[in-house]
Predict the structure.
Amino acid sequence: MEYLIAIVLGAVGSLIAAEIWANGPALSEWLISRAVARLPEHERARFMEEWLANNSDFAGNIQKIVHALGCWSGASSVARVLSQLKKTADNSDKPNLRNKVEARDASPPSKSDAEAIIKAIKLLRRHQQRQLEVLMLLSENRIRSRFLLSDE
Amino acid sequence: MSQDVRLTQPTLKVLHFLLEKPREGRSGAEMSKATRVSSGTLYPMLARLESAGWLSSEWEAIDPSEAGRPRRRFYKLTALGQNNAHAALADLQMAAGELAWNI
Protein backbone atom coordinates (compact mmCIF):
# COMPACT_ATOMS: atom_id res chain seq x y z
CA MET A 1 0.00 0.00 0.00
CA GLU A 2 2.78 2.42 1.00
CA TYR A 3 4.51 1.58 -2.25
CA LEU A 4 1.38 2.55 -4.20
CA ILE A 5 1.02 5.87 -2.30
CA ALA A 6 4.65 6.69 -3.03
CA ILE A 7 4.11 6.05 -6.74
CA VAL A 8 0.94 8.21 -6.81
CA LEU A 9 2.62 11.04 -4.87
CA GLY A 10 5.65 10.85 -7.16
CA ALA A 11 3.44 11.05 -10.24
CA VAL A 12 1.44 13.98 -8.85
CA GLY A 13 4.67 15.74 -7.85
CA SER A 14 6.10 15.28 -11.34
CA LEU A 15 2.91 16.63 -12.89
CA ILE A 16 2.99 19.71 -10.64
CA ALA A 17 6.70 20.24 -11.38
CA ALA A 18 6.03 19.90 -15.14
CA GLU A 19 3.16 22.37 -14.87
CA ILE A 20 5.34 24.88 -12.99
CA TRP A 21 8.12 24.39 -15.52
CA ALA A 22 5.76 24.98 -18.44
CA ASN A 23 4.21 28.06 -16.86
CA GLY A 24 7.40 29.36 -15.21
CA PRO A 25 7.62 32.70 -17.03
CA ALA A 26 3.90 33.38 -16.61
CA LEU A 27 4.06 32.44 -12.94
CA SER A 28 7.07 34.68 -12.31
CA GLU A 29 5.38 37.58 -14.12
CA TRP A 30 2.27 37.06 -12.04
CA LEU A 31 4.38 37.04 -8.85
CA ILE A 32 6.08 40.28 -9.93
CA SER A 33 2.72 41.91 -10.62
CA ARG A 34 1.60 40.89 -7.11
CA ALA A 35 4.87 42.30 -5.70
CA VAL A 36 4.43 45.60 -7.53
CA ALA A 37 0.87 45.88 -6.20
CA ARG A 38 2.42 46.24 -2.73
CA LEU A 39 4.29 49.40 -3.74
CA PRO A 40 3.00 53.00 -3.72
CA GLU A 41 0.87 53.60 -6.82
CA HIS A 42 3.11 56.25 -8.38
CA GLU A 43 6.14 53.90 -8.32
CA ARG A 44 4.48 50.75 -9.67
CA ALA A 45 5.15 51.31 -13.38
CA ARG A 46 8.87 51.88 -12.77
CA PHE A 47 9.36 48.76 -10.66
CA MET A 48 7.16 46.61 -12.90
CA GLU A 49 9.38 47.41 -15.89
CA GLU A 50 12.62 47.12 -13.93
CA TRP A 51 11.79 43.82 -12.27
CA LEU A 52 10.37 42.27 -15.45
CA ALA A 53 13.55 43.27 -17.32
CA ASN A 54 15.69 41.67 -14.59
CA ASN A 55 13.46 38.61 -14.62
CA SER A 56 14.05 38.11 -18.33
CA ASP A 57 17.81 38.21 -17.67
CA PHE A 58 17.58 35.02 -15.61
CA ALA A 59 17.91 31.96 -17.81
CA GLY A 60 15.99 29.12 -16.18
CA ASN A 61 12.39 29.00 -15.06
CA ILE A 62 13.39 28.15 -11.51
CA GLN A 63 15.73 31.14 -11.36
CA LYS A 64 12.93 33.34 -12.70
CA ILE A 65 10.51 32.08 -10.07
CA VAL A 66 13.09 32.47 -7.27
CA HIS A 67 13.78 36.02 -8.48
CA ALA A 68 10.07 36.84 -8.62
CA LEU A 69 9.53 35.39 -5.13
CA GLY A 70 12.36 37.65 -3.93
CA CYS A 71 10.64 40.65 -5.52
CA TRP A 72 7.46 39.72 -3.71
CA SER A 73 9.15 39.24 -0.33
CA GLY A 74 11.25 42.43 -0.67
CA ALA A 75 8.42 44.61 -1.96
CA SER A 76 7.18 45.63 1.49
CA SER A 77 10.69 46.85 2.45
CA VAL A 78 10.99 48.74 -0.82
CA ALA A 79 7.55 50.28 -0.18
CA ARG A 80 8.70 51.38 3.30
CA VAL A 81 11.81 53.09 1.89
CA LEU A 82 9.79 54.79 -0.85
CA SER A 83 7.12 56.07 1.53
CA GLN A 84 9.80 57.41 3.91
CA LEU A 85 11.42 59.16 0.99
CA LYS A 86 8.11 60.69 -0.09
CA LYS A 87 7.41 61.85 3.48
CA THR A 88 10.82 63.55 3.64
CA ALA A 89 10.24 65.19 0.26
CA ASP A 90 6.77 66.40 1.31
CA ASN A 91 8.13 67.92 4.52
CA SER A 92 10.89 69.75 2.70
CA ASP A 93 8.28 71.15 0.28
CA LYS A 94 6.19 72.65 3.12
CA PRO A 95 7.09 76.35 3.49
CA ASN A 96 7.99 77.23 7.07
CA LEU A 97 7.51 80.67 8.62
CA ARG A 98 10.98 81.82 7.70
CA ASN A 99 10.38 80.83 4.07
CA LYS A 100 7.07 82.68 4.07
CA VAL A 101 8.71 85.87 5.44
CA GLU A 102 11.51 85.57 2.90
CA ALA A 103 8.99 85.04 0.12
CA ARG A 104 7.02 88.08 1.25
CA ASP A 105 10.16 90.22 1.47
CA ALA A 106 11.34 88.98 -1.89
CA SER A 107 8.16 89.99 -3.71
CA PRO A 108 7.96 93.75 -4.47
CA PRO A 109 4.81 95.60 -3.26
CA SER A 110 2.21 96.10 -5.93
CA LYS A 111 0.51 99.40 -6.84
CA SER A 112 -2.64 98.38 -4.98
CA ASP A 113 -0.50 97.68 -1.87
CA ALA A 114 0.95 101.20 -2.12
CA GLU A 115 -2.51 102.75 -2.50
CA ALA A 116 -3.77 100.87 0.55
CA ILE A 117 -0.77 102.06 2.59
CA ILE A 118 -1.35 105.70 1.54
CA LYS A 119 -5.04 105.42 2.49
CA ALA A 120 -4.04 104.09 5.92
CA ILE A 121 -1.55 106.96 6.41
CA LYS A 122 -4.25 109.50 5.54
CA LEU A 123 -6.67 107.94 8.03
CA LEU A 124 -3.99 108.03 10.71
CA ARG A 125 -3.18 111.69 9.98
CA ARG A 126 -6.86 112.64 10.19
CA HIS A 127 -7.21 110.72 13.45
CA GLN A 128 -4.10 112.35 14.94
CA GLN A 129 -5.24 115.83 13.83
CA ARG A 130 -8.56 115.31 15.58
CA GLN A 131 -6.80 114.12 18.77
CA LEU A 132 -4.50 117.16 18.62
CA GLU A 133 -7.44 119.51 18.15
CA VAL A 134 -9.23 117.99 21.16
CA LEU A 135 -6.08 118.30 23.29
CA MET A 136 -5.55 121.93 22.26
CA LEU A 137 -9.19 122.74 22.98
CA LEU A 138 -8.96 121.14 26.43
CA SER A 139 -5.77 123.06 27.20
CA GLU A 140 -7.32 126.31 26.03
CA ASN A 141 -10.42 125.75 28.19
CA ARG A 142 -8.26 124.97 31.24
CA ILE A 143 -6.25 128.16 30.81
CA ARG A 144 -9.39 130.23 30.33
CA SER A 145 -11.03 128.83 33.46
CA ARG A 146 -7.86 129.36 35.52
CA PHE A 147 -7.41 132.98 34.54
CA LEU A 148 -11.11 133.67 34.24
CA LEU A 149 -10.84 134.65 30.64
CA SER A 150 -13.93 134.88 28.55
CA ASP A 151 -14.50 133.19 25.20
CA GLU A 152 -13.59 135.32 22.23
CA MET B 1 18.77 61.94 1.19
CA SER B 2 19.04 61.48 4.89
CA GLN B 3 18.45 57.79 5.24
CA ASP B 4 20.95 55.75 7.18
CA VAL B 5 22.71 53.03 5.22
CA ARG B 6 23.11 49.75 7.03
CA LEU B 7 26.42 48.29 5.99
CA THR B 8 25.51 44.64 6.12
CA GLN B 9 27.50 41.92 4.37
CA PRO B 10 25.22 41.88 1.28
CA THR B 11 25.46 45.69 1.08
CA LEU B 12 29.25 45.55 1.20
CA LYS B 13 29.26 42.87 -1.49
CA VAL B 14 27.11 45.03 -3.78
CA LEU B 15 29.19 48.14 -3.07
CA HIS B 16 32.36 46.19 -3.81
CA PHE B 17 30.87 44.96 -7.08
CA LEU B 18 29.81 48.46 -8.10
CA LEU B 19 33.24 49.86 -7.20
CA GLU B 20 34.91 47.51 -9.70
CA LYS B 21 33.57 49.64 -12.56
CA PRO B 22 32.12 52.72 -10.93
CA ARG B 23 31.33 54.49 -14.18
CA GLU B 24 29.31 51.61 -15.59
CA GLY B 25 25.68 51.17 -14.73
CA ARG B 26 24.70 47.73 -13.48
CA SER B 27 21.28 46.14 -13.53
CA GLY B 28 19.73 44.37 -10.58
CA ALA B 29 20.04 41.02 -12.36
CA GLU B 30 23.79 41.55 -12.94
CA MET B 31 24.31 42.47 -9.29
CA SER B 32 22.25 39.54 -8.07
CA LYS B 33 24.15 37.06 -10.24
CA ALA B 34 27.60 38.46 -9.43
CA THR B 35 27.14 38.87 -5.68
CA ARG B 36 24.66 36.04 -5.09
CA VAL B 37 22.51 38.45 -3.10
CA SER B 38 18.85 37.45 -3.47
CA SER B 39 16.39 39.83 -5.07
CA GLY B 40 14.44 40.03 -1.82
CA THR B 41 17.50 41.57 -0.14
CA LEU B 42 18.87 43.41 -3.16
CA TYR B 43 15.92 45.60 -4.15
CA PRO B 44 15.22 47.09 -0.69
CA MET B 45 18.99 47.70 -0.39
CA LEU B 46 19.12 49.48 -3.74
CA ALA B 47 16.12 51.61 -2.74
CA ARG B 48 17.85 52.55 0.54
CA LEU B 49 21.18 53.32 -1.14
CA GLU B 50 19.46 55.41 -3.80
CA SER B 51 17.39 57.36 -1.29
CA ALA B 52 20.55 58.00 0.74
CA GLY B 53 22.22 59.45 -2.36
CA TRP B 54 24.84 56.71 -2.67
CA LEU B 55 23.44 55.43 -5.96
CA SER B 56 21.87 56.97 -9.00
CA SER B 57 19.86 55.06 -11.55
CA GLU B 58 18.75 55.51 -15.11
CA TRP B 59 16.83 53.58 -17.74
CA GLU B 60 18.56 51.63 -20.45
CA ALA B 61 18.59 53.67 -23.66
CA ILE B 62 16.44 51.39 -25.81
CA ASP B 63 12.94 51.48 -27.21
CA PRO B 64 11.11 48.60 -25.47
CA SER B 65 8.71 48.13 -28.40
CA GLU B 66 11.63 47.78 -30.83
CA ALA B 67 13.71 45.62 -28.52
CA GLY B 68 10.73 43.45 -27.62
CA ARG B 69 11.57 43.51 -23.92
CA PRO B 70 11.29 45.92 -20.99
CA ARG B 71 14.09 48.41 -20.32
CA ARG B 72 16.68 47.59 -17.69
CA ARG B 73 17.33 50.02 -14.86
CA PHE B 74 21.06 50.68 -14.40
CA TYR B 75 22.52 51.68 -11.06
CA LYS B 76 25.88 53.29 -10.42
CA LEU B 77 27.64 54.87 -7.47
CA THR B 78 27.48 58.63 -7.03
CA ALA B 79 30.57 60.54 -5.85
CA LEU B 80 29.20 60.35 -2.31
CA GLY B 81 28.56 56.64 -2.74
CA GLN B 82 32.07 56.02 -4.06
CA ASN B 83 33.67 57.86 -1.13
CA ASN B 84 31.50 56.12 1.44
CA ALA B 85 31.92 52.70 -0.18
CA HIS B 86 35.72 53.11 -0.28
CA ALA B 87 35.72 54.17 3.37
CA ALA B 88 33.44 51.31 4.42
CA LEU B 89 35.50 48.69 2.58
CA ALA B 90 38.77 50.15 3.91
CA ASP B 91 37.36 49.98 7.45
CA LEU B 92 36.38 46.38 6.82
CA GLN B 93 39.83 45.49 5.50
CA MET B 94 41.45 47.21 8.48
CA ALA B 95 39.19 45.33 10.88
CA ALA B 96 39.95 42.05 9.10
CA GLY B 97 43.68 42.82 9.26
CA GLU B 98 43.50 43.57 12.98
CA LEU B 99 41.54 40.40 13.55
CA ALA B 100 44.10 38.32 11.63
CA TRP B 101 46.91 40.03 13.54
CA ASN B 102 45.25 39.32 16.89
CA ILE B 103 44.69 35.64 16.01
